[in-house]
Amino acid sequence: MSLQPQRPICCRRAVPEHTRFRIRPVHGLFSHSTLGFREVIRIATTPCMLASSGYSNRRPRRTLIPGTKASTRKGFAPRPQVGTSTQKKDQNDAQEEEVSGGSGSKKPAISSSGTTDRKVTGDVQSAEIDPTSRMSSNLVKRRTGILEEVEQQGQGNDEIDQQIFTDMPSDSTDDAETDGQIADVGNEGDGLGLRYKNIAVDHSNKGIGKETMIDQFSKAGIGKEITTEQFSKVGVGKDTATDQVNDVGIGKETMTDEFSDAEIGEETMTDQLNEAGIGEGTIADQFNEAGIVEETMAGQFSEAGIGEGTMADQFSEAGIVEKTTADQFSEVGKQMVYVKNQIGRITIAEMTEIAGEEEKKLAVDESRLDISDVAEPAEAHGSTENAVLNMEESLLKQKADMEAKAQRQLLENLADENFSEGIKVFVVPQVVNPDQVIEIFFNRSLSALANEPDVLIKGAYNGWRWKFFTEKLQKTDLKGDWWSCQLSVPTEAYKVDFVFFNGANAYENNNSKDFSLPVEGGMDETAFEDLLLEEKHKEIEKLAAEQAEKERQAEEQRRKEAEKAASEADKAQAKVETEKQRHRLHHLMKLSSESASDIWQIEPNFFKGGDRVRLYYNRSSRPLSHATEIWIHGGHNSWSEGLSIIEKLSHSGKRDGDWWSADVVVPDRAMVLDWVFADGPPGKAVVYDNNNRQDFHATVPKGMPEELFWVEEEHRIYRKLQEERRAKEEAVHKKAEKTARMKAETKERTMKMFLLSQKHIVYTEPIDVRAGSVITVLYNPSNTVLNGKPEVWFRCSFNRWSHHNGPLPPQKMVPAENASHLKATGEEVDSNKIEEQMGVYELGGGGDEITDDVNFGNLDLDLCGQPDPDPIADYNFMLVKVPMDVYMMDFVFSEREDGGIYDNRNGMDYHIPVIGGIAKEPPMHIVHIAVEMAPIAKVKDLHFRNSFAWDGTEINVWFGKVEGLPVYFLEPRNGMFSVGCIYGRNDDGHRFGFFCHAALEFLLQSGFQPDILHCHDWSSAPVAWLFKEHYAHYGLSNARVIFTIHNLEFGVNNITRAMAYADKATTVSQTYSREVAGNPAICSHLHKFHGIVNGIDPDIWDPYNDHFIPVPYTPENVVEGKKAAKEALQQRLGLRRSDHPLIGIITRLTVQKGIHLIKHAVWQTLERNGQVVLLGSAPDSRIQNDFAHFADQLHSAHAGRVRFCLTYDEPLSHLIYAGADFILVPSLFEPCGLTQLIAMRYGSIPVVRRTGGLYDTVFDVDNDKERARAQGLEPNGFSFEGADPSGVDYALNRHVS
């Protein structure tokens, strides 16, 4: 059945100005599957104007048909009798023809807003104004203004809806642009000029166009599912049947079932309508009050654009089972209240009634349009908003209650399941993600805390390594003894670790396994490790910055305090000097006069500072009586400021003598003038008249007040002292900075030399290995035990093989010819290709792919300036990614993956320092035990520390620091060491053994735990076996013993025994280690015997900071510095000043040092007009006497060209090193030698015999170019073979020439 309207729609209708009422859904209440629905729902109230010639006196009616979202607000319009869609189209065409014929011409058209035309594809909406209309221009403007204001107010909200609308599927939006029904209403003879008004009803929002309902549902993406599922997904609210069909597309099921799924409930029609707020009455009345036009249901749906046919036909096409109209409307009545989270619409009238809005109507007359100026009451507007808010709050509360019930049910189910399975802990949500709040539930009754009143959780993340937490659990209302608390999972978490406890000492820790929860979707363990390293790096940088700032502030505070103290000292010194000057000046003022009439005169007699005066001098009978020129050299106030008056005198016509005169200016602060006369200007004068060494003095008659003068003088002296001090401090500061810079540069060069020292075997590119970078290891097996092996395998780790990730898996190296692309300069190499061809080696799985490109730059073996031919032909390559937490890279090479023959650098392995890492190498506690050390004379703050007893003897311990290192001196009370010498007694062995035993006993009793015990030469060799036999198992178990041989010539028995007990043995150069390798004491221990070149103290032997030389110098001014030193040396030793070569010899005079070669070299040098300086002494008195006699002979025969100083003189040795051109070291054997190293430090050229350390450190300018180049050095001296005079001559002849 269908309802038939009783009369046409009334058009006399008004809505308060600016009224707008809209409801939008809450997005969070809808599933993703209904996104198209939830984004297009709205209810809007806009001002409207309706006019019809035939309905001016009828009661206003309301309509259920909402405005569409795809077009501009159109307001309400009168509706014709309901017909089919075709009928309506015919009516529209007829009306258009009538308007066209009646007007005769088109009139300007305006949209419903009064300002613009609104066009939508397939729809036309316009209103024409008849120029013959009786409506006044003002009335038109007022009408247009109202419409414009309403349109502008709605535009912002329309844009929001349009944005939502555009998010719908493209097919839906296409329908929205084209589909719709046009209801045309004629308006003949109304006198208003409104010929027609088309209303486009666009149902594209609802997904229903001019197609069957089934097609509409298909386009909306709903599919063929039961309506229950459709409504369940979208949360259907209470709405009219029309809106339900339009907005959601009802499935193939009865309306009763549909509304039942929408939670409407099973009640009578009347009750349903009452609950919807419709009121009691017939269905027709209900609809009339609701503003529903009295038309057939088919007509309603026809205007909604559902298609042609009856209500039953429409539903049938939509796949909906037929049901009586009464039933349909019974269910429709349950949908009259709409909210954002429900799909449906509500009529404007209903919303107005719900909000209690008062309407002021605009009278529309058939003959003329009369628009009353009415304003929307503020109370009505506010009540509308309040109504919306109240409904929103109500439904949000309802939603929250439903969610709470669902959550409650979930928790109860989880609690029951876990309790039944004996599980103590569960978490909600069950899948833990980062940046999420979780709730942990704990069953106390199942745990060890069953009887504890309090339960707390203690935990951290990622294996107890990140962000510790402790929270108190609260008792829940779940069935059983469940407690819970909430935790916020951080972004960095991949696992949550925790235990429960009672706040004291009772714990539930999952049987000592702890509880843990995996965190999904976040970091993995590797990424977290990288994060930890990065955080550690940031922390180190932060601490370093803080430490640097503290040091800076402390330094600034020290500077201020020092400045304050120095300023006070300057003031005190200024006061003292002022008093001294006062006494001197008073004495001069007593001796001075205004003139000496027969010698000098000043005119005028009265003058003051700044005046120009004429000074006369009578040279008759004076020292300058025959001088051709006479000059005055003058000053003031006892020459306090040096020369301040210099003038040449001219002959004067003054009578009674040979008078000369000059005009001079009196200094401003002069109290007394001081001067002498000379025969020339300063620096060229020879003869002076200085008044018999008393100088000439004259009082300034009109000088400044004396007390004021001395106050200013003291201040002047104070400023001068400050300037001098600050200049000196600045010079010292600059010198210290330069020294630090040179040290850093030297350290860098030394490190580079070390890294390149085995370049012929292995090196890295880049040379400096930096943490976090990818480096290339280049290895040449042809110079190792792996020469000729078909394969080379690389084995690597870090931090001296102690890195926490352990050694990396062995990796096969790739020959260079398979990676020829690496030769390209600066070529960017794809890391994937590198991995394929060479292998990429990193912690956590060797060969893992490195995603960053690697720039190899110049992969050239020559790092000293000259390229090698075919530079990488013999090398194998390996890429290694260096972790951030390393300080040392360690590696060896083998012939097979499983081992075989190893190249491990003779058991030392290959080690390369890593810079820039967050880990620092832990310091080693090394204790040196030696019977002598140098320089003992530099010990500072030597004081008694304690005493201990051993072997029946009380031993005193003295403590001091030598060059910053703590040094302990042992003094037995039995007088064993108080014999006046170290070596040369018959009981040396006994005394040295006692000392070694006492030293170990001191370490034991004092609680020291050294890592290394380092003993030196035969005198402290007993430490090796005494430690292993008596102390290694009794408190000093951590130590290892290193024994160093400085000279194998003495104490062979002790050296032999120490070699057997030592863990490692060294000597002071590689060549010397080879030279003594055949010695019986060494040969059986070559596997642990190594040569390490000795070194000098760069702070002691530093020509830039050497106080024993006249001019400090660096490589920048070495020529000037050495010239000054040579002149000072010649002057000190009485040598003739000459530019001939000067040879220095600084040595102990022993047979080992080649004394016969020294004598020969002295004679050869003197024959070539050179100079010789020798400094040294002999422990053997016979040698000492021999050289004394030799010195006497040379001094008498070659005076001014040779000087022997047969003693120890450290200051003189510095001057010889700096002033000599050559330093001679002709040792027969030399384990290392320091003389040649110091000579090169001071820029003197060494002349040496090729032996031991001399060969390792001096490279002949003619014969060792390749050897020096291989070590990254340059030739630096002269050397010779053999121990006969001819070898010395060979070197001397070359160096002299």
UniProtKB/TrEMBL annotation:
Gene Ontology biological process: amylopectin biosynthetic process; starch biosynthetic process
Subcellular localization(s) per the UniProt record: Plastid, Amyloplast; Plastid, Chloroplast
Pathway as given in its UniProt record: Glycan biosynthesis; starch biosynthesis
Short name of any one Pfam family annotated for the protein: CBM53
The keyword Glycosyltransferase belongs to this UniProt entry's keyword annotation: yes
Entry coiled-coil feature ranges: 711-741
Chief subcellular location: plastid
Region (Disordered): 51-138, 546-579
Top enzyme category: transferase
GO function terms (MF aspect): alpha-1,4-glucan glucosyltransferase (ADP-glucose donor) activity; starch binding
Keywords: Amyloplast, Chloroplast, Coiled coil, Glycosyltransferase, Plastid, Starch biosynthesis, Transferase, Transit peptide
UniProt cross-references to SUPFAM superfamilies, sorted A to Z: UDP-Glycosyltransferase/glycogen phosphorylase (SSF53756)
CDD domains: GT5_Glycogen_synthase_DULL1-like
GO cellular component: amyloplast; chloroplast
Catalytic activity: [(1->4)-alpha-D-glucosyl](n) + ADP-alpha-D-glucose = [(1->4)-alpha-D-glucosyl](n+1) + ADP + H(+)
InterPro entries: CBM25 (IPR005085), Ig-like_fold (IPR013783), Starch_synth_cat_dom (IPR013534)
Entry EC number(s): 2.4.1.21
Carbohydrate binding module family domain span: 435-520, 610-701, 772-915
Matching PANTHER family: PTHR46083, STARCH SYNTHASE 3, CHLOROPLASTIC_AMYLOPLASTIC
Family recorded in the similarity comment: Belongs to the glycosyltransferase 1 family. Bacterial/plant glycogen synthase subfamily.
Entry protein name: starch synthase
Organism listed in the record: Musa troglodytarum (fe'i banana)
